[in-house]
User: Fold this.
Amino acid sequence: MRSLSFVGLAILVATCVQVPVAKADLLQDVKAKRKLVCGTLTDVEPLGFTDPKTRQVVGFDVDTCAAIAKHLGVQLEHKGLTVEARIPELTLGRVDIVAAALGYTKERAQQIAYTHAHYQAAIRVLVKASSGITTLAQLNGKKVSATQGSTPELFARRKLPGATIMTFQDVSTAFLALQQDKVSGFAISEFGSLRFKQQSGGQVKSLDEPLAWEATGLGVRKGEPAFLAEVNHILEAMEQSGELDRLWDKWYGPNTRFNVKREKRLTPIEKLE
Assistant:
């Protein structure tokens, strides 16, 4: 009877004790499948866009993904994403990594992990070339437009406390306010400003002094420290070898219509927080 009670107790304890479940490791999984699934945008040139000749999605982000896959010794599987789907697709495990203009914010960092920032985009102010404005200080007491809820609006309010910030629902309307002299400046990311400067035919220019620098990294699911560390190691190797610079120059360099210099080097994201 005593023996039977002991057996029954052992069974009861065994059923109550939770046996640890082995947690999948993304780095091992990627290497086992010999495939890296990377999500990029498909309609933002030159980050990720459809080549009209080949109908293939190409761009800086696509090449960055391909380089990381090559360093891992696996094949790249590309997946096109919308801006809204970037974080959900990552957290749901439908992509392994996201390279899609993923500027760092504290809010996003609560949902996903960031690699080192492999580039930083300047937030600049566009002014009319004929305005005589050459410095941010000259915007004191003047009106500056920005897209509502954007990081340029945030930085404009921080850096231009003496200016009146006027917000608009979309970037085109914010630029139109500058064209119609309703504002003296227009806060926008450097990449976003390129098409407006080209469209204006030299009538607008960007001030040399940036409002801020917006760090951009690759997105990784939280809870994958080995994968995150390996991708960061690869990015460090690409920086040291000049591979990141070569990719940048291919899509943004002096021989392109964008002609944007890569001024900031690879930087651990925690140093920018």
